Please model this.
Amino acid sequence: MIWNTLLRLRAHFLESPSPSSATITTVSADSPDKYHAEIAIRPLSDSKGIELRFNTIGEHKGELCVIADSPFRVTVQPNHSLRPLEHQEIEQYLPYAVLPYFSHQHSKTFAISHFAQTLDGRIASCSGDSKWIGNWENLTHAHKMRAMCDAILVGASTLKTDQPRLNVRHVTGVNPLRVVIGNSISDDDIRSSSGEPVLVINTHNSTKLNEQVTLDAAVDGRIEGQAILRALYQRGVTSLYIEGGANTTSHFLKTLALDQVQVHVTPRILGSGVTGFEFGGVETIDQAVEFSNPRFVAMGNQMMFVGEVIRDRAEGNE
Ligand SMILES: NC(=O)c1ccc[n+]([C@@H]2O[C@H](COP(=O)([O-])OP(=O)(O)OC[C@H]3O[C@@H](n4cnc5c(N)ncnc54)[C@H](OP(=O)(O)O)[C@@H]3O)[C@@H](O)[C@H]2O)c1
Model:
């Protein structure tokens, strides 16, 4: 029930990203108690974020105040009428619902990466098999994130190996813009993974049937993550969900273009295979990429790490 309210909130911020007071109403017609929420939105002073006051009517009648004062951070006032799962859903997904507002404030596309990896840090076996490293809760989470982001991106190898459909199937929500990156991508690769249009990012034309954004390569032959984000921002993309693979996500991290990292950890060991993050490495532990607000979220009987990349520390790793 609260999921539909969060989707409605996201739609509101997509339509009206600039700070202004508003009240939106959501009604979940399919729920037996006709769950109904009225949300009063108020910008905080000095453009420091927004306050959201939820007023819910129905079986779980109550009031709830949430402060969103920076990207990815919300403070949810304790509310006893809210079921623990609803509270968790708000804490976990409301930051993405309000991301269009922060995108507008910061004039940028926010990039979030997601992997499912084993205890030994593998996202695929040596044969490239990765279906499925995570669990059902992780799959549902990935689909919620797809619904909460404007665009989803994968690298050429993931497109060819996994043939992901990159749409929203396990929850309600609107499909994100599908973006694939790489010069080796042909129309056949895209046709085999999805019938709907896909945006291809490359350094020279490689497809005929799909729209392309051709960007210059940096010294290492790859397109800089920031250049990709700028191109997407110009197309109105406020948030990008990067679903791998390792090469693609590591390049975004290395070029300081990742805002948030989500790493799902499953209790399996593969011994060898594709490592999640691989970018040349650091000499000493104090040069490691670190995260602000690091947290571990339960995903059924597994867990997911979520944190925001600290860019100053990452700069030291270049
Ligand atoms: N466990 C999980 O959650 C998960 C998620 C996703 C994928 N996987 C697994 O990961 C494996 C694939 O990962 P991978 O690291 O081998 O490959 P990948 O990241 O999927 O694709 C790498 C390719 O993408 C293109 N590319 C990426 N970044 C680019 C940039 N900045 N500029 C230009 N081109 C760029 C290049 O394609 P071109 O060479 O064509 O130019 C590059 O060779 C598969 O086995 C897949 O199953 C696992």
Remarks:
- Residues 115-116, 123-124, 128, 130, 133, 154-158, 161-162, 181-185, 222-223, 243-248, 251, 274 surround NAP (CB under 6 Å).
